[in-house]
Input
Amino acid sequence: MDTSHSEDSGQVRGAMPESHEQEMAQGKRFAFGKNWSHFLRLLDDSRIDHAKTSLQRMLGRDSLNGLRFLDAGSGSGLFSLAARMLGAAVTSFDYDPLSVACTSTLRDRYFPQDKMWRIEQGSVLDRTYLSNLGQFDVVYSWGVLHHTGAMWQALDNVGTLVAEGGYLYIAIYNDQGGASRRWTMVKRYYNKYKLLRPILLVVSAIRLWALSTIRYALLGKTEARGTHSQENRGMSRIRDLVDWVGGYPFEVSSPDRIFDFYHTRGFTLEHLKTRGGIGCNEFVFYRLPQKPGQSENPWPGKTEP
Output
């Protein structure tokens, strides 16, 4: 099925992924787009402002005027919207057709017929597709690459989309060892057995939120226990919980492995925010300009540290 349209019409381009619906039907993939469509009902100016502030803080810029911004795995489209509001020329893509629809809804609502915001359907694992996108001053992929089923390949692919002197802003689930393996099992069961979903959500909410409440009462402080934080990023706690429990495929990494991976590819770490627990570690990398005669990837063919 081809959903291609003219860029000038402000509509979506790209091809429907053939295996997406099959993967969900077989319990191999979470319905991320369906979850994001529920989130859009909660979206308001306050959440948008939180998203804009999140980008400004991590990128160290008040404005994105004149910059090319790629949202790789746009989800709800909130951060594509935030980047566009900050002045960037935005390209958004997602593998999930409902996520593409969510992103398109936000563009139509806030920037109708905008030629500076392009939305497409595509996979971060499809190198042919990615090669046609070009390169960007900011490549943003928050909480996406660990849900592809081939995280290290996805990490490698997004790095090639960053222009020299550009920035890569990613967030990857923290490696908790045995706890990560147990959560992987929960996610598999959630996607495979529909009748278990309400039970798994309730048990997980108690496990995550009750512990935070007890910690706050005993220590006088709390920490984010989810994949996102509404206070920091404008997200929804309920939608976040569903995303966390159901989010599959699922991979994790320690911060040092991510650092080493990009260091060998000519990136330097500009900003690191670690959360611990089940949260995402956030990284902002700067791509150094290439030296004459230097290979773009000093480790060709190496996609995992």
